[in-house]
Specification:
Seven copies of one chain form a homoheptamer. The first copy, chain A, is of the alpha+beta class. Chain A has one domain: Glutamine Phosphoribosylpyrophosphate, subunit 1, domain 1. Chain A is built from seven helices and ten strands. A five-stranded antiparallel sheet of chain A has the order 8-1-2-9-10. A five-stranded antiparallel sheet of chain A has the order 3-4-5-6-7. In chain A, helix 5 runs antiparallel to helix 6. The longest helix of chain A is centred in the middle third of the chain and has 22 residues. At the D-E interface, helix 1, helix 2 and helix 3 of D face helix 1, helix 4, strand 7 and helix 5 of E.
């Protein structure tokens, strides 16, 4: 109970340090991330795969409006987990930043630079008063001069680069699956398959094409491409045929 | 009781995260939505139907002043549920935004773009201090180049696209009715009928023309059109004649 | 007692939502309205009648200084109930707004538009921090191109249009009387009589000309007109002669 | 005791409504007025009399420095009760406002207009945060085109017009005396006598010329005039000679 | 104990009214004045005498640096009691104000006007939030066109004019001595003697020249003059020779 | 328990002093530093060595993204321990500051000057309200005109110059090892070896090349140089061959 | 315990008065000064000596970086005790202020004027909200036109002038030693000796040259001069030879 009342002392007003050097508001924002449905990113030599579970609360809801994957620029995609409205703010920031680079310098923004401008923005909300942290984690995938990159941003404003990463609910189980199954030489289709299997891992269910959203950012001319539902279905069919041990 | 006092800790001052990653002020604002009378939106191939219950507290009150449906632009209508004065602020924002688009670019604003500018505004009030969230949900219905669209905004600043949706009191029961009865190929008149039946669902009462307000936004020249009382009455008469199983 | 301490949690600092979606500061401001002496508005085909009880705490106080009725423009009057100094701020706002319209566009402001500019101002004080809501309700009566209009504003920033309405102490009893006795085809004099009877209703006392203030806003050339004491006295005499059943 | 703790909840930070619709900080400011020595205003057909008790805490203090009566303009005087430094701010505001009118329009400011500019300023301090209300009441007496006017301002920012009024400690007893003894046709000298008797009422003591301060604002050329000590003494002598029943 | 906790409720954040109409932060600032060593002012027909006890905490401290008397202008001096750093701010304000008058109008500022500009500044710190009151009282002594004036400022922002006044620790005893011994026709030297006796009163000790600081502001050409240590010693010698009854 | 509740009193809102003159928020920020993995700096006559442990939480995480060593300018490197996102803000500040110097004056910024601009920024966040301190310590190593310098910054905004220093978890043990083994005449390679041994000290494990990051800032043309993984491996191999007593 | 909880009430948010007229945050800042190692200033006819103990927490720390003595201008030095980062802010302020005087008027700033600009800055942080006081005391020593001056600043913003003064830990014992041993006719070397003896007083240890830092500001051409380590050693040798009674 003391732990309870001690925590309460640190979450009011602004984001401040607890006696053991933690920022509770940031940690609570991480809980908001865990409450969101999972997203997965997989980096392959030919591009980055982003995939996300979509929870559609009613058959009358348009699936496309439960947006978990976002095109930030021709060569960059973003997956999110956590507070949806917060995610949209950060995605909009990324888009404006990418457009600004295009306008000012006539070139595509570097994926790492773009990620940093997002995490700088996130960090600011953890230090200066009068605002709460962003309750969202992002996976930022893109291609720089033919080289695929995959970054994660967390609510503290830290970024990490990954070969394959998961964010959101059941993150640990999904990440464990990725660690067991990821191979650096996957082609993009295999990356999609890995991502879909990983997302279905927690429940060990068969993958259902309609409850996932997949995009690829490849180092050919296509750049960001949302994988169409029909393609997804044939991929899923193959997966389900091949079974878990494929 | 502990739950009680814990909640109190998170709803003061600004909107901050609780230890389990929730934003209580936003959740309380959702309660304000539930306290409002219900509104319904139905998308048909020819346009969007918006309908709302109106609670008139005295026979001397002008029914028109209990405004639940609003014309935001020639091609966009908004229904609301929750805190009435908050709703008016968002409707005014939508109108200014639509007019601005008209003035700057000489064209009608995209329904999705308009919805986003509303939810961006809502989200801002959930993150920066010194203000409470908006205690209102909206249904934004409109037509883009002949294509009907129907969006919902919630107090967190999230938007969803729907085929048919309900907001406000008894939302779950009404949404359940919509899910059971909605067909994608309804014509506008059938959409009106569905909306009226849905609104009367919770009490299973016969629909009364005078306690509802209906508007349609169609992909013909009419655009936003408030359905006149006399039309409503004949529709209602038909419904009541046809019974529940029609 | 828990209800007590729970309420206290929601009324400090800024206006925020309670767990059940209510804004306590706004509800407390409504209590401030109930503490004020009553005002009544009656709409007739020829104009609007505003009437108010005046509590003069000493025979040495000038009755005219207990202002409950205010001329906002040639064609608009305002009655108030609640915190007197707050009412004056809103009346001044209404006057500036009406004058601005006159200066900018050379025309009288629409009564509904004027009311909205007041309720927008009121709503702002319920959402952004650092200020309390306005503790006052207004009746805004006026004539637009020959058409009488009567609006009410409440502390949440909502407005309603009425045929006849009461605000302030004993509001429910007075409104009940209006609902029972109002007829849409009253002439202005009958409207005055109805208003005076309604104001005397709670105590079922005879009306006293000196404790009421009456103004009319008519669709002839007169516009806003404060009814002189001598006229009031003869009207009251008639009422008292006619008895309650007239 | 609960009443105690409940009150404490409403007087911190900013001025907010209590559950029963009261503004405690404003009510506490009224207590500050009651803690001040009394002032009295009497309106006569020929001008306004202002009179005030002066508490001089030491024989070495200059009586003139315990200022309770202030000349705001040639034709306006102000008496105060309550927090002395607050009163000076409002008197300075009145002077600047009167000078501004003189400079801009070349004419004396209307007494009612001047009073309103003071009460508007007071009201602002009761609604917007970060400041306490003014702990002072004023009597504003003056002459407009030959017509004497007497207004009171209170800490809520309300103004009242009076024939004769008292503010400050023992206000109720003094006001009662004024109500019993005031006649509308008093000449200025009789007004002074009434004011002095009223001030001495609570203790039923004989009036002492040295413990009161008197000013008149008359509709002749004199305007604001501080009544000299020697005049006061002869008036007081007359009063004391005539006894209480004069 | 309740009194204790009630007081605590009113001294946080900003200066607000207690239920009985008091401003605790201002009253606590008065306690800060009482914690300071005493200062005395004596007005004579030929000028004003300011005198102050100086507590030098170490023989190595320069006596001149324990500044209790300050020259504000050629014709104005200031003595202080209370929070030393606060006093310096107000003295600096007085100097800037006096210089400004000299620069703008080419004349010496009126002593009363100067005092008012100080008390206006002090009052502001008692009403608007985000700052504490000034914990200091001042004696402002000066000469206007040959007329000596002596004012006191207190932490509420009130000013009083005195013939002779004391501020700081043991104020009541010193003021009592002044009331008993002051005569309006004292010459300046007798005024110095009176001031020194008064300062030594509380302990009934003999006056020690080295523990006091004396300045005179006279209506001859000298204006503000700090009385040199040697002069003080001979005066003190005379006093001590003459005994208490001189 | 009292100590507990006393501490809670000092860590809310802004950084304020405790009764014993401590700034708890700063001390808690020091705890955040201790939660970070360790970094070490070693100054040699030929340059500065920076080394850091890297905790990579998953084999799929890119080691390079767990950035603990940063190039601030050609001649300056920064190692960090503590809150990662805070560190990035300070490193960015350092970079901007170094570039500004280059742009304005065409020369490399002095290492001490650069450090001071960082600690000034840190100090500001410990004194003015509305923000928390930075939860990070830095080692700033560089070369000024051929002279190697090594500074530490702490969360209070203090800087220290070192021959060899450790920050982060197990700081005391690592610093003890450095104190025992440091010699001022080490060459850079020996400095690297010392740094690696020190980092492995707490657990007394053999050094693993893949869990450390090393950079050198030397007074030859190379300036800042990140030591490549292959070089690190051969160095580590030598260390492990030579044993602890080498 | 009550004293405990009472104190807590006054140290939050901003610096406000306690019921007994004290500013706890300022008093706590004085505790921060006492936590700092001691500094001593000695004024001699030929100049001022500043000396400070230096606590170097590790043999690897550069002694020069534990800066306790600072050159503010060619003719002014500053010693500090307390919060190190706060001291640096004030020293920087002093330097900017001295440079400004040089730039604007082409002359050296007066030592007293410089001290005042520091204490004005300190005072401001004790009165206006949103910031804590400075947790540092300074000794400001310098020479004005050949005249040595020595000032102390404290956390309240008060300054004192001294012949010889100590600040920081064990201040009372050191000051006692200075009071016993100081003579006004010391030459600078004797002043250094006195300062060193005083600093070693608390522990009655022999002085160690390496744990002290000494600077002189003399009225010859040298101005501010940091006494070199070798000079210090020979002085200390002499002291230790001469014993305590020299």
């Amino acid at each position: 109970m003391q732990g309870q009342s001690q925590q309460q002392a640190y979450d009011r007003g602004i984001t401040i340090f607890s006696p053991d050097g933690r920022l509770y508001q940031v940690e609570y924002a991480r809980e908001a991330v865990k409450r969101g449905t999972a997203s997965v990113g997989v980096r392959t030599p030919d591009g980055v795969v982003l995939a996300a579970n979509r929870q559609v609360s009613s058959p009358l809801m348009e699936r496309s409006s439960v947006e978990k994957l976002h095109k930030a620029d021709d060569h960059v995609g973003v997956a999110s987990a956590g507070h949806v409205a917060d995610a949209r703010q950060l995605v909009d920031l990324a888009r404006r930043r990418a457009q600004g680079e295009q306008l000012r310098y006539g070139q595509q923004i570097d994926v790492e630079t773009l990620t940093r401008s997002i995490t700088d923005h996130i960090q600011e909300y953890t230090q200066t008063g009068g605002a709460r942290p962003f309750g969202v984690a992002l996976l930022v995938g893109g291609v720089d001069d033919g080289e695929p990159r995959l970054f994660e941003t967390d609510p503290s404003g830290t970024d990490y680069e990954w070969q394959a990463a998961a964010i959101g609910s059941n993150r640990d189980a999904i990440q464990g699956y990725l660690e067991a199954e990821y191979r650096a030489d996957l082609d993009v289709d295999a990356g999609i398959e890995l991502a879909l299997r990983a997302l279905s891992e927690p429940e060990d269910e068969t993958v259902e094409a309609e409850s996932v959203d997949v995009a690829t950012i490849t180092n050919d001319d296509q750049g960001y491409r949302s994988v169409p539902a029909e393609d997804l279905e044939s991929i899923v069919a193959e997966i389900d045929a091949g079974g878990d041990d494929d």
